[in-house]
Automatic annotation (TrEMBL):
Protein name, UniProt field: DUF6265 domain-containing protein
Superkingdom of origin organism: Bacteria
Classification via InterPro entries: DUF6265
Residue intervals of the DUF6265 domain: 37-143
Pfam families: DUF6265
């Protein structure tokens, strides 16, 4: 099983069964950025004793980019930069992590990739990562965090910043 790490998220609360995992031989369904354009905006939530801030652009150039910042004790814990990109008539979520000094976590050419499993009723299920529209001003991200037998699903709640 691949290693799953923290990524662009808000309020952490343990939950269950909101994520799906990729099965060998599976293919991603047809999808476009129109299916997830509601994610665009400025979002904030509490996370790990600090504040998580995430900003998503509207679709442009066949992608929706995002930046994420985790602030704890008034200091940057880490950043993320990534996108949901339309590729081969479906979507993929990709990201990279950075320390507060912008030194990368992943190797230069490496990204953390989440293949699309399905989209239904305002919920995008990527491999181990689910983005759920609660309403126009709230969304949840459900993420598998950990490694091998120590994987747990966490729910992160965001509110739209006006």
């Amino acid at each position: 099983m691949k290693t799953l790490i923290f990524f662009f998220l808000g309020l952490g609360i343990a939950t269950g069964q909101k994520t799906l995992q990729w099965v060998d031989g599976q293919t991603s369904p047809p999808a476009s950025l129109e299916n997830v354009k509601w994610i665009a905006g400025h979002w904030q939530g509490e996370a790990f004793g600090g504040i998580a801030e995430e900003i998503w652009s509207p679709p442009l150039g066949n992608s929706m980019m995002f930046v994420y910042k985790m602030v704890k004790d008034n200091k940057i814990s880490f950043y993320e930069v990534g996108h949901i990109q339309g590729i081969d008539n479906t979507l993929i979520l990709q990201l990279k992590h950075f320390h507060g000094n912008l030194h990368g976590w992943e190797e230069k050419e490496e990204t953390i990739d989440f293949k699309l499993i399905k989209i239904e009723n305002g919920v995008a299920f990527f491999d181990g990562f689910t983005i759920e529209k609660v309403n126009e001003n709230q969304m949840n991200m459900h993420v598998l965090i950990g490694e091998d037998e120590k994987v747990q699903e966490m729910t992160f709640a965001y509110k739209r910043v006006e």
